[in-house]
What does this fold into?
Amino acid sequence: MNRARVRKVLFALLVFLVVIQIFQPRRRNPPVALSRSLPSHVRVPRDVYAALIRSCGDCHSNQTHWPWYGRVAPLSWVITDDVNEGRRHMNFEDWQALADPKQANDRLTSICEEIKQNGMPPFSYRLVHQDLRLKPQETAAICTWSQSFRTNPVGSGGLP
Ligand code: HEC
It folds into this structure.
């Protein structure tokens, strides 16, 4: 490619990047209703809940910290999609949405599995947010709690 051609391609790319900024996804942090949140439905130690909100809350709560680079397309589309999808699967601040006790219990037990298998948080998120990583003792506390739902499932009597 000669220089004029390269310049044309770069210019087209620049125009493309500017134009796609028109398509801004909606970034929403819905209001938090305590009565719908996890601690109102399931017994959860305070430190466990704090660690979950800190480390997972960007995609599994209503209090997402939207990063500045998350305003720039196409990254904004990817991030908004992750948050919406994460909340849809499991939102600690809308636990009531998981109406089926079996489904809720499955989510609770898979929290430990996901962390142990490095499935969650997603790899790209872990790369960027090393500071939010769970400490070993936090993982241990979360796992003890999460795995207790194997022997004592939600809705089968053992919980408030
Ligand atoms: C960057 C966003 C993001 C963060 C941060 C994140 N998750 Fe997720 N999570 C998702 C998405 C998206 C899904 C749904 C798709 C999938 O399963 O990959 C999901 C799904 C899950 C599921 C499966 C729910 C189901 O449907 O069974 C569990 C459990 C889970 N996450 C736990 C966690 C835990 C625990 C943390 C923190 C240690 C965490 N996640 C942090 C985005 C995130």
Observations:
- Residues 27-151 form one domain.
- Residues 20 and 73 are 6 Å apart (CA to CA).
